[in-house]
Amino acid sequence: MKADIEDVFDKFGNMLYRISVVMLKNSHDAEDAVQDTMIRYMEITKEFADQEHLKAWLIRININICKNKLRFYRYHPNIEIDELRSHYIENEDMLLMEELMKLPEKYKEVLLLFYVEGYKIREISGMLKITESTVKKRLERGRKKLNEGMGGAENV
Question: pLDDT tens digits, residue range 1-13?
Answer without folding.
Answer: 577 889 999 999 9
